[in-house]
TrEMBL record:
This is Asparagine synthetase AsnA. GO terms for molecular function: aspartate-ammonia ligase activity; ATP binding. One of its GO terms (cellular component) is cytosol. PANTHER family: ASPARTATE--AMMONIA LIGASE. It comes from Klebsiella variicola. The keyword Ligase applies. Its EC number is 6.3.1.1. Residues 1-117 form the Aminoacyl-transfer RNA synthetases class-II family profile domain. The keyword Cytoplasm applies. Pfam families: AsnA. One of its GO terms (biological process) is asparagine biosynthetic process.
Amino acid sequence: MRAPDYDDWSTEISEGFAGLNGDILVWNPVLEDAFEISSMGIRVDAEALKRQLAVTGDEDRLQLEWHQALLRGEMPQTIGGGIGQSRLTMLLLQLDHIGQVQCGRMAGAGSRKRFRAAVMNSAASVAAGGYAARYQSARYDRRCA
């Protein structure tokens, strides 16, 4: 289930259908599962927030500062969306963990040498002919050295 205090997934849009999202999901053959590469949608308003927190049993969040501001009408209604660069890179390079394309420490991440090997091995079957892997490896060297 989606977070109750982010996108509006409970407003009825037509009979039998609810949610004001337009997320893009693709099949990820490495993970053998659906893979979200974007997050797009209309964010919750006060009514959707209360309704969704009740559905998930998280009404205690109504006491939090951001939630209180939304309930008082101090937060404007918003819509947002974008393609996740890291997730798209994961998909194109056929990697199975976001830590393989982002700078930072993660459990089991290993050394730069292991990172480079994973990227190059994964990119071997990518139609881009390894360009993306060389670019990503160079980018990793600049940001994480």
